[in-house]
Amino acid sequence: MTRHMPQKAIVQRTALELDTIHVGECVDILKSLPDKSVDLVFADPPYNLQLGGDLHRPDNSKVDAVDDEWDQFASFEAYDRFTREWMRECQRVLKDDGAIWVIGSYHNVFRLGVALQDLGFWVMNDVIWRKANPMPNFKGTRFTNAHETLIWATKAKGQKRYTFNYDALKAFNEDTQMRSDWAIPLCTGEERLKDEDGNKVHPTQKPESLLYRVLLACSKPGHVVLDPFFGTGTTGAAAKRLGRHFIGIERDETYAKHARERIARVQRANESDLATMGSKKAEPRVPFGALVEAGLLQPGDTLYCPKGQRTARVRADGSLVHGELTGSIHKVGAMLEQAPSCNGWTFWRFKTDAGFKPIDDLRARIRQQGH
Amino acid sequence: MTRHMPQKAIVQRTALELDTIHVGECVDILKSLPDKSVDLVFADPPYNLQLGGDLHRPDNSKVDAVDDEWDQFASFEAYDRFTREWMRECQRVLKDDGAIWVIGSYHNVFRLGVALQDLGFWVMNDVIWRKANPMPNFKGTRFTNAHETLIWATKAKGQKRYTFNYDALKAFNEDTQMRSDWAIPLCTGEERLKDEDGNKVHPTQKPESLLYRVLLACSKPGHVVLDPFFGTGTTGAAAKRLGRHFIGIERDETYAKHARERIARVQRANESDLATMGSKKAEPRVPFGALVEAGLLQPGDTLYCPKGQRTARVRADGSLVHGELTGSIHKVGAMLEQAPSCNGWTFWRFKTDAGFKPIDDLRARIRQQGH
DNA sequence: TAGAGCGCTGAATCTCGCC
DNA sequence: AGGCGAGATTCAGCGCTCT
């Protein structure tokens, strides 16, 4: 139908325009993006419920900032409608193995979390950005508000595949797994964008470190990261630095201008330096039988359990025998240990002149030959 | 009207029964409490965890899951109905200068926060309980879930009067303002209640120091603290220690029995004892990856061993590469030295105009930023 | 006796690809 | 789409035993 042509043309063009900032209303521009075209969404939505400026009802009428209870309810409701509208579009444009991160404070983050859950996203973690240097509460009326909350959620419940660079973060954290609380300083000093008059360009510019960690954890080089509230482009800067693509949406041209200049100054890291610690799961699979086939073990050889008191014999097809028990290295290990499962590669040892060594060493030798 | 007499009698009696545990359904008993009779509510409701099958540690031991009947809900809607019902009653029984604290994890805390806001409570802070020793993520699928979230809210918006012992907390916190993130260990060891068989009495007993800090912050001696999900009585124990009254509601008589015995053992503390519950500031460590994240080192930069003849390149995730070897600063250092372990912070140097310096200097710089 | 070492455990939405 | 099987996966603290 020809009347769809112009729209389609727009969709195509927008889909391809990576690494640029699209100036306009968030939802309008989101609607021009095709389904399942984005790997990751990072959203730092407005949350000034009281100030009125950023919050409009879907019909674009402005929410009155009145103090009475009824209006307070109305304003939460309006915020929820606004939230669900952009969030639903983000869900649509996410690939089936995609995920979303949102950030907020106690003013709005509960509403973001419930919206995610109600729309069918599946929360993986909430993550605390613990500010090293927060602004004190001058009046002494509350606790120093020293953190913000991020929520990481996959597109759908039961989603099998999603990106999480577990081993990269573990290396980052000196070999202990990364926790849900991150200590990161505020965006200040050199990093904070200032205009000609020396005033900060954006009131809530996020530290690039924060986005760096999000993208390092939940995306791969070459992935497309969408930020529907781009602001001064922290997401874009971190994406470029880490070799990811970005799609930015921002309705304020001044912010967009500063963001463009900022991102232009960012250096992308070299391809090889963007590599991170890989997971073992991603390594090529070597069946145990290949060790026998390659002559690294002979049919009839004996394998020993870690403590050495129990043994099994290797058969020609790569199965093991221990008395009546037969099966794979994993199965026989699990049965001997009466455990629900067992990694036979690390469980079983073979005898060498230098003592007992795990059969995993032999697998490593085979994998190395593959190079 | 005489037919109201019996009910009124119950109300009066219940209203006066302080420092006891009322066994029965939460909402039923709440309804028997008079309006505006309570200074503070602390609520640790079921989290609606939605766990799947069994979970085993890498050593094949089974994780003792929270699979109790009381944590099962048919849907988010059912959970929301349940939440709003008990929360509305809590709001009714709160004095006009009263406040509520609730605690939850990402499974339920967003729904708690939205319910509070929708019912007209006014959120003062969200507070993070940073666990010193959380259970790891055994399968390497997410971030270690290392915190829970508490929400502090007053009974109503615009409430002028509420209790916040700013100076007491500041003193408690070594003369700095108390922040919204609290580092507190899990409830383990001696403190954890065990039954005759040595099994834990309650699956989710909270540390007393957590309640201690809440009551110290938001109540006065003599105040009445209501806990509608009393469990094994951590709120009651902290209340007694601090000279507050409590009203406990618990539907499980076994929990209630243990709580009674526990609280009977508690001594009301004098000032000097209270100081010993003091806060130990647990500053989070700065992992090597944070240096790359913050731009103090770039992916691709070279590090040098003490003698300078061997080098490694820094990657985006803070891992190092030396030929075929990859890993954390510690691992690569150890492999190069053929040592069982290595402190990468003192081993590796980076080049400056003033010669080579240990990377530990960069960590010091990051730590300083936090002040 | 002090210290090393080992075992146990904690609110957990905890695999993935192939057939 | 469900079942099967390979094989990957943990941190800190407490309390006990052993030297």
- Uncertain residue ranges of chain A: 1-14, 55-71
For the record, the CATH class of the largest domain in chain A is Alpha Beta
Order of helices and strands of chain A: HEHEHEHEEHEHEHEHHHEEEEHHEEH
Give me the secondary-structure category of chain A.
alpha/beta
Secondary structure tally: strands of chain A: 14
Please indicate the percent range of residues of chain A in DSSP E strands (runs of 2 or more). 15-25%
CATH-wise, what's the superfamily of the largest domain in chain A?
Answer: Vaccinia Virus protein VP39
* Oligomer designation: homodimer
How many structurally independent domains of chain A?
A: 2
Q: What is the CATH architecture assignment of the largest domain in chain A?
A: 3-Layer(aba) Sandwich
* Largest interchain contact: A-B, 82 and 82 residues
Main pleated-sheet profile of chain A: 8 strands, mixed
Radius of gyration of chain A, whole Å:
27 Å
Count of helical stretches of chain A: 13
- Helical fraction of chain A equals 25-40%
Choose one word for the global shape of chain A.
Answer: elongated
Distance between the termini of chain A: 54 Å
The CATH topology annotation of the largest domain in chain A reads as: Rossmann fold
Average pLDDT of chain A: 90
